């Protein structure tokens, strides 16, 4: 049986001829070397310019069998994007600009004196001021629970200064592992319902009533806070220490405050700032510890290490406000679970290294769709602003006389 002669086109013959010529000078085919064969505009002088040569005509071998009528250029080799309604092609994605590395706080020795000095983290002032703006009225972190129900705000302002200091200490002891909202409710109950220690004495929260109250009743009054059983014992023991060692008042030193049961460094430094108006250290809770480590300011394992790290470089005039500022920031934007990176200026501006990229991109897209159009900070959509400007122009045009005169003499 005579087999039919295979049909070879002229192009196929040319293909094998070129392959033989290219065999002597082997060349590695990369994406960049094939870029010149992407769909480009033909030359003005020669329609058969090399820019229009099929990839198969240079000796390359397709990875998959090409269907008739389909493009001979692999889709993965050409990236197409539209810029201002013009079709632009690129063989490879543009390189990303190198981001400036963010350095945490570091201790260095002075070359002349040999003394150790801690250098602050890079960009810390920009980040600090950014959070401060977000915590201001109108910002995304304004109106946190700590702003109205924080421990420093729960003392009864109608009570004596000594009782107010006692209220601050009690609120701090109850706040551990407890939300500010719950702590505020419990404190209010103690201030209004704690029985008087003797007939005729005032009802409410003071040292004498705390000493006289039955532990079981006290436990029932504070049952909503975390670890209320332990806190009941701590409150009763602390009341006895205040009576016997501190003349019925709270200690005015960090050592004295931390000697009380259930009082740690965070509570002690906050109590000194609020009750005695003396800032001797930074009150670092879980929010301050978590957020500063997310930012890369420090690499610490617990709040006490974070306190020492921050105090080594943070200016003293910021020690008192940083706790309140970051606690509110952690309650509203930088949450422990479900951080709102798309609403955070630090994430949108590329200052937070821990920001979730997907949320940041969505936040930037939303931010482009709105504009602050008034002095009072009212946020209005761009479409509404355009409409408002158009209406104003029409009103102005109606006021101008038909002859074009301004009416001025």
From TrEMBL:
Domain HhH-GPD span(s) in chain numbering: 174-332
Cellular component GO terms, alphabetical: mitochondrion; nucleus
Tree of life domain: Eukaryota
Bias (Basic residues): 96-106
Reactions performed catalytically: 2'-deoxyribonucleotide-(2'-deoxyribose 5'-phosphate)-2'-deoxyribonucleotide-DNA = a 3'-end 2'-deoxyribonucleotide-(2,3-dehydro-2,3-deoxyribose 5'-phosphate)-DNA + a 5'-end 5'-phospho-2'-deoxyribonucleoside-DNA + H(+)
Compartments reported by the entry: Nucleus; Mitochondrion
GO molecular function list: class I DNA-(apurinic or apyrimidinic site) endonuclease activity; DNA binding; oxidized pyrimidine nucleobase lesion DNA N-glycosylase activity
Matching InterPro entries: DNA_glycosylase (IPR011257), Endonuclease-III-like_CS2 (IPR004036), HhH-GPD_domain (IPR003265), HhH_base_excis_C (IPR023170), HhH_motif (IPR000445), NTH1 (IPR030841)
Keyword Hydrolase tagged: yes
EC number(s) on file: 3.2.2.-, 4.2.99.18
SUPFAM superfamilies: DNA-glycosylase (SSF48150)
Ranges for region Disordered: 41-70, 90-123
Keywords on record: DNA damage, DNA repair, Glycosidase, Hydrolase, Lyase, Mitochondrion, Nucleus
Principal cellular location given in the protein's record: nucleus
Gene3D superfamilies (UniProt xref): Helix-hairpin-Helix base-excision DNA repair enzymes (C-terminal), Hypothetical protein, domain 2
Function: Bifunctional DNA N-glycosylase with associated apurinic/apyrimidinic (AP) lyase function that catalyzes the first step in base excision repair (BER), the primary repair pathway for the repair of oxidative DNA damage. The DNA N-glycosylase activity releases the damaged DNA base from DNA by cleaving the N-glycosidic bond, leaving an AP site. The AP lyase activity cleaves the phosphodiester bond 3' to the AP site by a beta-elimination. Primarily recognizes and repairs oxidative base damage of pyrimidines.
HAMAP family in the cross-refs: Endonuclease_III_Nth
Family per record: Belongs to the Nth/MutY family.
Protein name: Endonuclease III homolog
Gene: NTH1
């Amino acid at each position: 049986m005579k087999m039919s002669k295979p049909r070879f086109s002229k192009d196929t013959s040319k293909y094998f001829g070129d392959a033989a010529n290219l065999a002597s000078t082997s060349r590695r085919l990369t994406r960049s070397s094939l870029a010149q064969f992407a769909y480009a505009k033909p030359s003005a002088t020669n329609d058969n310019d090399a820019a229009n040569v099929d990839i198969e005509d240079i000796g390359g071998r397709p990875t998959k069998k090409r269907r008739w009528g389909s493009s001979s250029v692999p889709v993965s080799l050409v990236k197409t994007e539209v810029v201002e309604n013009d079709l632009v092609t690129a063989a490879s994605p543009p390189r990303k600009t190198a981001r400036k590395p963010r350095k945490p706080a570091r201790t260095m020795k002075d070359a002349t004196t040999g003394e150790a000095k801690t250098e602050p983290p890079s960009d810390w002032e920009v980040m600090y001021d950014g959070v401060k703006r977000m915590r201001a009225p109108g910002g995304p972190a304004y109106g946190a629970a700590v702003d109205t129900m924080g421990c420093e705000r729960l003392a009864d302002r109608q009570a004596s200064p000594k009782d107010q200091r006692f209220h601050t200490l009690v609120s701090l002891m109850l706040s551990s592992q407890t939300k500010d909202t719950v702590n505020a409710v419990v404190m209010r109950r103690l201030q209004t319902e704690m029985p008087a220690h003797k007939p005729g004495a005032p009802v409410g929260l003071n040292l004498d009533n705390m000493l006289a109250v039955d532990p079981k009743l006290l436990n029932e009054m504070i049952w909503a806070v975390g670890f209320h059983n332990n806190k009941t014992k701590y409150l009763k023991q602390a009341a006895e220490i205040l009576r016997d060692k501190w003349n019925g008042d709270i200690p005015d030193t960090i050592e004295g405050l931390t000697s009380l049961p259930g009082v740690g460094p965070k509570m002690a430094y906050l109590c000194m700032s609020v009750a005695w108006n003396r800032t001797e250290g930074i009150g670092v809770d879980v929010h301050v510890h978590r957020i500063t480590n997310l930012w890369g300011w420090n690499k610490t394992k617990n709040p006490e290490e974070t306190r020492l790290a921050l105090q080594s470089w943070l200016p003293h005039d910021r020690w008192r406000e940083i706790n309140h500022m970051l606690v509110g920031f952690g309650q509203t934007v930088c949450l422990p679970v479900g951080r709102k990176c798309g609403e955070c200026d630090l994430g949108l501006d590329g200052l937070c290294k821990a920001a979730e990229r997907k949320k940041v991109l969505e936040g930037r897209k939303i931010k482009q769709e709105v504009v602050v159009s008034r002095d009072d900070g009212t946020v209005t959509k761009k479409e509404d602003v355009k409409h408002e400007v158009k209406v104003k122009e029409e009103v102005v045009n109606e006021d101008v006389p038909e002859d074009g005169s301004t009416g001025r003499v």
